[in-house]
Each structure stands twice: as structure tokens, then as C-alpha cells.
Amino acid sequence: MMQQFGNYIAGEFRTSVDSNSNINPSDTSDIVGQYARATEQDVEDAIAAAAIAQDQWSQSTPQQRHDILDFVGNEILARKEELGRLLAREEGKTLPEGIGEAARAGQIFKFFAGEALRLTGDHLASVRPGVEVDVTREALGTVGIITPWNFPIAIPAWKIAPALCYGNTVVFKPADLVPGCAWAIAEILSRSGLPTGVFNLVMGRGSVVGEKIVTDRRIDGVTFTGSVATGSQIAAKCAARMAKFQMEMGGKNPLVVLDDADLDIAVDCAVNGAFFSTGQRCTASSRLIVTEGIHDRFVDAVIGKLQGLKVDDALAEGTHIGPVVDERQLTQDLDYINIAKAEGATLAFGGDRLERSKDGFYLQPALFTETENGMRINQEEVFGPVASVVKAKDYEQALYLANDTEFGLSSGICTTSLKYARHYKANAKAGMVMVNLPTAGVDYHVPFGGRKGSSFGSREQGRYAAEFFTTVKTAYTFG
């Protein structure tokens, strides 16, 4: 029988009566491993361990936190090829993308190792004579972390690292679909010198594991990345018990291409942003808003680029686009392709399920033209290699269309005009704006997050992460 990778609870790895087969979407006959699914009692034990460890860990020294986080970052970077291959096997990113994501996770841990030594506060004079004021940040407490399947090592890293950096204890639930990278992080943390109970990994279904994390009053805050529907439910449950919460959810990100754009740059931005990582990014450019003068040339050039892309096994050399993550997601993508056709959109390229030498979830990238911004294909998140072109009369209409969505995560423009670039940066209703860059692809040392239906709460990553993972204390001293 295949070894079961256990949950990590109170400093020990623990197997379970139930387990999950981690299946390679490039080759469904390849089982990455058997991963334990936590019971409600397992989650109870993890939360109890984290709550007990919290006081002592919050009083740990900056040097202790630095050394632990630096250890984790260094090991992830040293093993980036190995971890990148694991990621490609379980999630379907191409091997270069997987290695790049693993490297980013290592860099995130090292960034927050440095932040642990840069904790600051304010010492102020009071308006009252003889009184001094100190403003400091303290750990939020015990934090529940719930992450999605599309970035199985980077998103856990950018939540776990700041949580530990600022003195919080952690109960971490990864997506049930991709537990492998999460377990690898836990295994490294188990050897990092972290005190017992500070970090706990509980894998399994949201209905068991996630529900307990979200509703337990010992969890002081929940940081979640995933779907809008699930995020809304979590937010309501946290609000009901006055727990802090941070939500990163969907996107329907526009890339505006103006007549004056460099065509090669615009095409590269569109294809990279819309289709790489199999389009399974919340920052993907799913709406390509193109002005009339460049529209036809742009569409022809994008189709030409797509024709040269190789869709195949994520581990195969030369693969540009790997498989969709699983059968359920593939079905959703195909359903939206049919919806777009029924709405009157023109399927200009692709959209077919592909057969390869190994049984997997392969989908040819789909490009729609002749679409209206009100169509479902332009308003609802597909989360696959599917993009649509919306024709705009001019810059003003393009900007209006870009903002005409309930989401507001990432927004991009391709132009050689400094005037339009400046105006777009100031007026795009999104948390992140890209000029002559793909909408997908962000740095790890600056804030990440959106507006409207895409995000709720403080930003993730960089120094802005402190806003969620700490609470502010104001202390007065007389004499």
C-alpha cells in the first residue's frame, strides 16, 4: 500500500482513517501520494495546540522568528526544482512555472524573515503634560489559513510566513485537491525549530476542516483565498462571532489594448495573462478590450500566437500550457465555452478537449470575438484558458468597459501614450494596475489585493501584511 502523508498536529505527523488520492492531471494513472483527511477531532486538537502555544510564541524574539523563517526559505530555494516538479505533478502547471512558483515561496519566507527584525512602533508625546504614548503592533492570535488549489505553494507561503513573522500561531487547511506542496511546507517547518503547536496542518474537506476553523472561537482571524461563494459564507460566519477575516476571491480582469499599442507587446501580454498557467489565475486577463483601429490585427496576431503553443504534459519539455486541474474544472470550462456560443459570441480559436499520449484534462485555449461586455462570458469567472475580445470605440469606452464588472483585482493597459497610461492608473477600479505588462504576475514584496467583489480586508504580501496579522495597542505612561 502507498504511504499516507499525515496531518501535522501539535508537533507530530498523524495519519487518518480517511485519505485522499492526489492525482496528476497530466496523467490520471499517476498517483502523487495518499494524503490524510483530518477528522473533526483532528481539527479540534490542532486548534487546541495552536491556542496553547500562542502566548509563548507571541513573546518569542525577533531573532528566533527570523532564524526559523530564513531556514524555511533557504530550504525551499535549495529544493525548488524538486518542489516545482511536485507542484507540476499535482496541479498541472508546466515545470518551469512550478519551479518559479516554488522559488517565489522561498523568497517570501526570506522576506518575512527580514521583516521579523524590522518590527517597529511609535513613541509619542501626549497632549497631556507628563504623559508618554507608545503605539505597538502585537500578534492577532491564532490564525486559520485556507488556501486554493491554483497556487499550492506560493499562496500558503504568503499567508503562513507573515502569520509566523508577527507572532501568530497557525491552523492551516490547504485545498483538498492539491495537498502535496502544503505537506512539504509542513515537513520543512517541522525541522525548523518551531515550538510545538505553533504551526498545524489539517488537510481534508472544507465541510469538515474548513467549517471547524471558521466557526471555532479560539481562531482569532481567518485568511482565505478561493471562490466568491465560499468566501462570502466564511465572511458571514466570521462576522457573526466578530472574528477578523481577510478574503481574496475572484477576478474578471481586463486588458485594454489601444490603437497606439506596440502590437507585439500587447499580444505577449494577452497570451501570457490569459492562457499561461492554463488560465487558472485569479489575475488572468479574461477580457481583452481592444479599440477599433488595432482590433483586427490584434485578433489575428493572438490567434497566430495560440497556434504555436504546445498543450501537453506539464512535465514534458517544450510544453507551454499544461492540463486543467481536474475533470470538474474542465467541465466548467467547457460549459462556459458552450454558454458563450449560445450568447452569440464567435469562437475564433480552440475550445476543444484534447487527447494526448496520457489520459489527462487537456483543453485547447479558447478565444472568443464579437462579444458584448454584458455576456456571462465577460461577467463570470471561468477560471480556465478561455478569453474573449470586446471591441471598444476609443479609450473612454475601453476604460468604461474595463470597470464595468463586479470584480476589481487586476487591470491592464497596453499603450505607448504616457497620457493614457497615467489616466488609466488613476481611474482603473482595481487593486492592481499593469501598464504594458500581463495582468497576471506580481512581486512578492509589495501589496496584493483588489476591490469590489475581488477582495475584502487588508492587503496581502509585503509590509502591508502586518495590517491583518497584527493588532494595534496604544499604551499611556505617566511619570
Please provide a written account of the structure:
- The protein is an alpha/beta fold.
- The protein folds into two domains: about 5-250 and about 455-479, 3-Layer(aba) Sandwich (Aldehyde Dehydrogenase, Chain A, domain 1), CATH 3.40.605.10; about 255-435, Aldehyde Dehydrogenase, Chain A, domain 2 (3-Layer(aba) Sandwich), CATH 3.40.309.10.
- Helix content is about 40%, strand content about 25%.
- The longest helix has 22 residues, at about 95-115.
Q: What is the element layout, followed by pairings?
A:
Blueprint: E1 4-5, E2 7-9, E3 12-14, E4 19-24, E5 27-36, H1 40-58, H2 62-78, H3 80-91, H4 95-116, E6 122-125, E7 131-139, E8 142-146, H5 154-165, E9 169-173, H6 180-190, E10 199-201, H7 206-215, E11 221-225, H8 228-240, E12 244-248, E13 254-257, H9 263-275, E14 287-291, H10 292-307, H11 327-343, E15 346-349, E16 353-354, E17 362-363, E18 366-371, H12 376-379, E19 386-392, H13 395-403, E20 407-408, E21 410-414, H14 418-427, E22 432-435, E23 451-452, E24 455-456, H15 466-469, E25 470-478
Helix pairs in contact: 1-7, 2-4, 3-4, 4-5, 9-10
